[in-house]
Amino acid sequence: MEQFQGQTLSWDLKDGVVELALHREPANEIGSLTTEELERLVTALGVLNRKAHALIIYSTLKSGFSAGADLRELYRRIQQVGRAEVAKEVRSYLGRIHHVMNTIDSSPLTTIAAVHGVVFGGGFELALTCDLIIADKMARFCFPELRLGLIPGYGGIPRLKRDLGNSVVRDLLLTGRSFNATKAQQIGLVSQLVAEGEALRAARATAAQLAKFDRGTAIAAKKFIKPIPYQELQREIDIFCELFAQPAVEAGLKKFVESTDAQPYLP
After folding, report:
1. Do residues 116 and 197 lie in contact, with contact meaning Cβ atoms separated by under 8 Å?
2. What whole-number distance in Å separates Cα of residue 267 and Cα of residue 265?
3. How many alpha carbons lie under 13 Å from residue 153 in its C-beta half-sphere?
4. Burial letters 86-124, b for 16+ CB under 10 A, else e
5. 117-166 tens-digit pLDDT
6. What is the pTM of this model?
7. CA 237 → CA 61, 93, 117, 155, 161, distances in Å?
8. How far apart are CA 154 and CA 70, in angstroms?
9. Residues of 172-205 as b/e, b for ≥16 C-beta within 10 angstroms?
10. Are 139 and 181 contacting, i.e. CB atoms less than 8 angstroms apart?
11. Distances, alpha carbon 152 to alpha carbons 16, 148, 254, in Å
């Protein structure tokens, strides 16, 4: 499927580049529908991988790339069936979203996240699956999960540790504070820093540059320099599920949902 128009995201293949646009208001929260549509992308990649050389992921929303998991949907589900029942569902869901993230991470395509605004939680984890992150100067990166009594659950810790090392992981995970785009470039998280509103344009220019090189060589190089930490990813799921069973999670979600802040996910 070379084109798809969904409720939360869309993609199109043009000139050897797949462009995946996130467009779920208000801030590209990743809930059940977004996950289903990401699974459709993963299925389509079986064909797209043979027709393209690059994948760009970006957001059409002013608010930013993605604020992360849909916490309101999760809280509503807990209220409907109880935390114990949702805890069983969470492990199954994490298996699904990890499959999505691992497939993008290991894709033979060169993958580029073009980000701006909020790049938080699960949205940050989606960006980390990409080979390159190009950020406009207004982007901010954060793992706010600790305030909910959780750790990131979409594979962010093993991927960040793989790419940058433990010191950055500890800072983001244990403090819950955000990094601006300048700091993100300084620590090696962002490969290119551009002016506000220019991330997608820069990503497209980078994708065009990639087309000049032999695909087989690029695929071999990526496989060599970007191992997938499968064992640590599975351990992350186990720890997340252990934490999710604790009362602190429901209390944290309740506080988030009832917040009157315009953007309660901000630090």
Report:
1. yes
2. 7
3. 26
4. bbeebeebbeebbebbbbbbebbbbbbbbbbbbbbbbbb
5. 999 999 999 999 999 999 999 999 999 888 888 999 999 999 999 999 88
6. 0.95
7. 30, 10, 27, 8, 16
8. 13
9. bbeeeebbebeebbebebbbbbbeeebbbebbbe
10. yes
11. 33, 10, 18
Domains present along the chain, CATH in parentheses: 3-196+214-258 (3.90.226.10)
- Say how far apart CA 41 and CA 49 lie, in whole Å: 11
Cβ partners under 8 Å of residue 214, min gap 6: none
**CB–CB of 148/141 below 8 Å?**
no
The span from the CA of 120 to the CA of 74, in Å, is 17
The tokens of 66 are what? 């993605």
Q: In sequence order, what E strands does the chain have?
A: 3-5, 9-14, 17-22, 54-59, 64-66, 110-115, 118-120, 132-136, 140-142, 179-180, 192-194
Q: Which of 212, 153, 224, 265 is nearest to 16 (CA)?
A: 212
Mean pLDDT for the chain? 93
CA distance 26 to 37: 17
